[in-house]
Specification:
5-stranded mixed β-sheet; alpha+beta; 544 residues; 17 helices; 4-stranded mixed β-sheet
């Protein structure tokens, strides 16, 4: 059976089939869009436009020409909507396009970061996206330097990344993980309810069987004795006609009581759900099952292969149950997805497979009572069952069934066998804690860093009196001795927006003490020296 077992292994995704499956999945998603979802997306786009484009309350430039505003708004709206299909690419593109220009876009990046953290499920892909976003942010910061450099400029760059990208990303990831945990808890509650119902049902059935057994052992035996003795007494020649008639009535009553007892026992032994008829539910009836599913609106196809072989009743019925369970799961958990049923007669075994594409929203993993029962049925038929998600997405149920009945007659597990209690995994137990801890760490680091920078003294500041007292032609040593030293003010590159330095001169820059913050610029003074003398002193505005 080695060649057949190899077919159960998951193959690598096909390069040609993956794009088609991706487009088909998102086309199905578009067909199920609700008006509430459309309204929510429109409202979010309006918020982005109001905050980032016009009037641009988060740093936008409303003085841009109308056609530039229109193009900027269209681009931001397209980036925001692209997060539904490509959350990672949308975040990377938004990070570069926003931070490499001076046209705002903070609200857009915050929303894209939250969506990427919420929608990217594997932590490896999420970490890679965050690292690439940081790299693009650093490159964009160098391209459009906002007049900040040095330690303070680097800290501002990391702060912007932490508050605008990393923090919303971690919050979105936390929300997604907590939602998954809540869904798992709800599913577990439903499973507990189902298990309680099953236990109650089993208790009732066992009690009914005990009652039926007691009635059969006691009443049935006694009624049989009455019937036998009455029949023997009726053959006695010493009885008169009247006595013989009474004995016949007694025997008839005993027989009637026996029939009624059988009826009562049948009611007590009757299960609440009738079992399936293995004679009609065979591998040949899969065609009828597929046709009925197709009439119900499911896109299902049936593929048969190989030369049909006569199968034992247990194996044939197990093949039918595999197809039935696979179609039921696809209709329940992946509505709208296409399903393929494969029945192939291999040289040494029968392969039955049901595969469906990925659903619009990945459902929480269920209790799996149907799959557990299916696995038990396949095991009793001597086969092997594989259930899982292929690399291309969706769900797959496949089984290998032998052509002969190889199951041992007494290998059914006892009903009283205790099931091992499932302990919560570490990932589920701590779901979302890591994300929210990292988000809190980002806030603490940012606040602590700005607090530390705020208490540092800034001493390289020249007041107006000192500037006016220094004259061109003074000795360099005398001027440098009068200039204040110490820590630099956190204003960035003081040489930006300055006129070219005189040829052959060495210039010293200081920040002016008096500033006019309404001009959105920093006043900087410059002293240039050549041949040991001050040859120039100028002021300029460093634009922010």
């Amino acid at each position: 059976m080695t060649s057949v077992v190899q077919r159960l292994r998951l193959d690598p995704p096909g390069l040609r089939g993956a794009p088609a499956a991706f487009l088909r999945e998102h086309a199905d998603r578009l067909t199920r869009v609700t008006p509430w979802r459309v309204g929510r997306e429109v409202l979010a786009v309006l918020v982005v436009l109001l905050l980032d484009v016009f009037p641009g309350w988060l740093g936008g430039d409303p003085d841009l020409p109308p056609w530039v505003l229109l193009a900027l708004g269209a681009g931001y709206a397209a980036l925001y909507l692209s997060r539904l299909m490509f959350p990672a690419l949308a975040l990377l593109a938004g990070t570069w396009s926003v931070f490499s220009t001076q046209h705002g876009g903070v609200a857009l990046v915050v929303m894209l970061s939250y969506a990427a953290g919420y929608r990217i499920i594997p932590w490896q892909r999420a970490l890679l996206t965050a690292v690439l976003a940081l790299a693009l942010h650093m490159l964009a910061w160098d391209v459009s330097t906002p007049g900040l450099s040095g330690l303070f400029g680097s800290w501002v760059m990391l702060t912007v990344y932490g508050m605008v990208v990393a923090l919303p990303f971690l919050v979105g990831r936390y929300v997604a993980q907590r939602n998954a945990l809540v869904a798992a808890l709800q599913e577990r509650e439903e499973r507990v309810v189902r298990e309680r119902r099953m236990v109650s049902r089993q208790v009732r059935l066992r009690e009914r069987n005990r009652i039926a057994q007691d009635m059969h052992d006691s009443l049935g035996h006694r009624l049989s004795l009455i019937s036998v003795h009455a029949g023997a007494l009726s053959l006695d020649g010493g009885l008169g006609e009247h006595q013989r008639e009474a004995v016949q009535v007694l025997r008839s009553a005993a027989l009637t009581a026996m029939e009624e007892l059988r009826g009562v026992i049948g009611v007590l032994r009757r299960d609440e759900e009738p079992e399936e008829d293995p004679v009609r539910r065979t591998v040949d009836a899969i065609d009828e099952l597929v046709d009925g599913t197709r009439r119900a609106g499911v896109r299902v196809s049936l593929v048969r292969g190989g030369q049909p072989v006569a199968l034992p009743a247990k194996v044939s019925h197990a093949a039918y149950r595999i197809a039935q369970e696979g179609l039921t799961n696809a209709s329940k958990h992946a509505p709208g997805a296409s399903v393929q049923v494969t029945v192939k007669y291999e040289p040494d075994a029968l392969v039955v497979e049901v595969r469906n594409n990925a659903p619009r929203v990945k459902p929480p993993r269920g209790a799996g009572f149907g799959l557990v029962g299916l696995g038990e049925r396949v095991r009793l038929a001597g086969g092997m069952l594989h259930v899982g998600e292929p690399p291309t997405g969706g769900f797959r149920i496949a089984a290998v069934l032998p052509y002969e009945d190889t199951a041992a007659p007494g290998d059914e597990p006892a009903d009283e066998e205790p099931a091992a209690a499932a302990k919560p995994s570490g990932i589920r137990k701590w779901a979302g804690v890591g994300s929210i801890v990292l988000a809190g760490a980002v806030v603490v680091v940012v606040v602590g860093g700005y607090t530390w920078l705020g208490i540092q003294p800034a001493t390289k500041v020249v007041d107006q009196r000192l500037y006016e007292s220094i004259e061109v032609g003074q000795d360099e040593a005398e001027v440098v001795a009068r200039l204040p030293g110490g820590a630099e003010p956190p204003v960035g590159d003081v040489k930006s927006h300055a006129l070219p330095e005189p040829p052959g001169a060495e210039c010293v820059y200081r920040v002016a003490d008096e500033q006019t913050y309404s001009s959105r610029a920093t006043k900087v003074v410059r002293f240039c020296f050549a041949d040991g003398k001050l040859i120039e002193k100028k002021t300029h505005l460093q634009r922010m």
